[in-house]
Design goal:
With 92 residues, the chain is mainly β. The protein has a domain of 58 residues: Nuclear Transport Factor 2, Chain: A. It has one helix and six strands, in the order βββαβββ. A four-stranded antiparallel sheet has the order 2-3-4-5, with no helix packed on it. A two-stranded parallel sheet has the order 1-6. Strand 2 and strand 3 form a beta hairpin. It is elongated, with a radius of gyration of 19 Å. The two termini are 14 Å apart. Bound molecules: zinc ion (ZN). Zinc ion binds next to loops. The site of zinc ion (ZN) has 8 residues, from loops.
C-alpha cells in the first residue's frame, strides 16, 4: 500500500484538521530494568519452566503496519490503527 508523506487529518490537541507528517511505527528498545522485565525474569527462576506458551509456528504471513501521525502545528503524535499488509510505502 502507498501512503502519502503528509496527510490532512484531525488533531486532538488543536481540535481541528491540520497537516500531519506520516511515519511508520517501530517498536522501541526494551529496557531490562522495567518492572515487567524484572517480574518476568523473577518468574523464570526456580522450578517450573516457561510461564506462558511461546508461539513458534505462525499462521499469519503479514503483520500490522501502524502509522504515526505527527501534527505539524503542535507536534502531537497519534497512532493510526494498523492494517495487515505485506508492504507499506510512504511516498515523499
Ligand atoms: Zn495539533
Amino acid at each position: 500500500m502507498k501512503v502519502p508523506a503528509t496527510i490532512n487529518t484531525y488533531c486532538t490537541k488543536c481540535n481541528a484538521h491540520t497537516e500531519h507528517t506520516v511515519t511508520l511505527y517501530k517498536k522501541g528498545k526494551e529496557r531490562g530494568l522495567a518492572i515487567g522485565a524484572r517480574r518476568h525474569e523473577r518468574e523464570l527462576h526456580g522450578y517450573g519452566g516457561q510461564k506462558y506458551p511461546i508461539q513458534r509456528n505462525k499462521a499469519k504471513t503479514t503483520d500490522k503496519k501502524t502509522l504515526v501521525l505527527t501534527c505539524k502545528k503542535c507536534g502531537r503524535k497519534t497512532m493510526r490503527s494498523g492494517v495487515r499488509l505485506r508492504k507499506l510505502e510512504i511516498i515523499r
